[in-house]
Hints:
Helix content: 55-70%
Number of strands: 3
Strand content: 5-15%
CATH topology: Rhomboid-like fold
Mean pLDDT: 89
CATH class: Mainly Alpha
Order of helices and strands: EHHHHHHEEHH
Distance between the termini: 18 Å
Amino acid sequence: MIPLRDxxxxxxxxxxxxxxxxxxxxxxxMELSLGPHARNQFVQVYGxxxxxxxxxxxxxxxFLHGGWMxxxxxxxxLWVFGNNIEDAxxxxxxxxxxxxxxxxxxxxxxxxxxxxxxxxxGASGAIAGVMGAYLVKFPRARITTLVPVLIFFTTFDLxxxxxxxxxxxxxxFSGVGSVASSHITEHGVAWFAHVGGFxxxxxxxxxxxxxxxxxxxxxx
Length: 220
């Protein structure tokens, strides 16, 4: 299921969300400009490698991506859910929130995968935090979602609470399954980074002061 847009109105321009998307795109273009060997070295230095973790990599890894689909998927989810959380928290507090969720996601991945020499990259853990916060703040918002039905695709307006809870359970069960099969990052997905980021987002949005949410718009 792919979220396309939400019905929750925002009262401010999502400056930080846009800047985060731009920063991720620029870093990815820089990655592409490197040769294969230099790119691998760059990921080894700035990606999160659990068995030799460097503190800075908890932040730098969330601005790296492994391919166009990895980047586009993450940035699309950030665009759909980020603007309302930025509106609720304010620009600066939202940036701090985003980075803290990314750090929490990275730590969760390291704890679940202590001996791995494989670098982990991507903004999905931080974005999972944004999604967790959205679940708390806007559970009744409607998310227009692209859903495959047999060989066709159609759209449904789903409650945010259902969509985000379903997404979280997929990450949690996939993470538990990967532990059972001794492959924490099976298929290159750091499941527990998603789980850790999501839970961090829920906790932080409950602690941090937020603005009163804007009235929800009518469904599209």
